[in-house]
Write a structure and sequence with these properties.
single chain; 5 strands; SH3 type barrels; 39% strand
């Protein structure tokens, strides 16, 4: 998800679509899309991943062990 505040004070939220140097496309949940000129954007929140950061869940050693286990499954 991404949320932008435009120079007219309105907010637009949705999924980030295509992005060029000039424009930003935001896809809404109803399937429509809105192309926004980047010069109209006052602020923008970066998309937030719904996945928790792995570095805060497992120690480096635990993560290595999980990867080693998964590799052994393929052998």
């Amino acid at each position: 998800m991404i949320s932008v505040t435009l120079s007219d004070g309105s907010n637009v939220s949705g999924l980030l679509g295509d992005e060029t140097e000039e424009d930003l496309e935001i896809l809404s949940l109803d399937g429509s899309s809105r192309l926004i000129d980047k010069t109209m954007i006052v602020s923008r929140t970066a998309p937030i991943s719904s996945m928790p950061p792995m570095g805060f869940i497992l120690t480096k050693r635990e993560l290595r062990d999980v990867i080693a286990f998964l590799i052994e499954l393929n052998e």
